[in-house]
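Q: Hi! First time doing this. I have a protein sequence and I read that you can turn it into a structure. Is that right? Here it is:
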Amino acid sequence: MHKSRYLKIVYLLSISISLVSCSQYLKSNAKTSASQSKKALYQPPKFHRVKKGETLYSIAWFYGYDYRQIALWNDIDYPYLIKPNQAIQLYPSLVRRASQNTRVPHSKKTLSKQEKARHQRAKQPKRAKKTAVSKDAKIKNTQTARQLAYPSKITWRWPTRGKMIYRFGAKRGKKGIGISGKSGQRIVAAAAGRVVYSGSGLRGYGQLIIIKHNDTYLSAYANNKKIWVKEQQKVKLGQHIADMGSNGAKNSMLHFEIRKNGKPVNPVRYLPR
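A: Yes, that's right. Below is the predicted 3D structure, encoded as structure tokens:
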């Protein structure tokens, strides 16, 4: 009698344990499938509406594109000027590609050739009537062409002193490295170049500086407390550009990125050891 009751209790316990484990398995599978479906359903926007203070470089940086690609998709010539409330297309147009067979948006060689061609057009004075406007345009084109003299070889240095608190991992969402320090600590240019963005319009970056070093490489300095440079300003290697601020967790640190043709690369591979 006692033995049969004992067997029933053991049987019921085994069933309940199997049911609990089965429900946990189903829940975990449901969470995994839900997260995978969210990733599959996510699509980047087709257009971006320009906000005050944004530049073509900052928009390209945010969406992970080469600035030349976006310029090509929107027929924006050098010096890539955009206006607030302007709609920026974030995908290649089939109509445009069909009408311009020589343009291949994802070809780095094509982008480089078109970049050079635009710079040459900027250097050459346009044949127009001799008016005050055309003279001003020629002066402006000449000045901007001079500003585009970037060194072919880049010398890199660390942007600040401190301990690296996280490493690069694009798959893990780490597009750069984190360097800890003290609030107000000097942040310097990791290489010579020209400031193409200075502001706080990019979500998740705080006070941000983007420096263009040549047609291939750009670097970014995020979470700054104070910025000491302006857009279009030329900077030298090691020049003081900002003071260290803090991230969302209020930890004093610098988030530093290097991008090659619009794509994040590991900064440690370029910085001296």
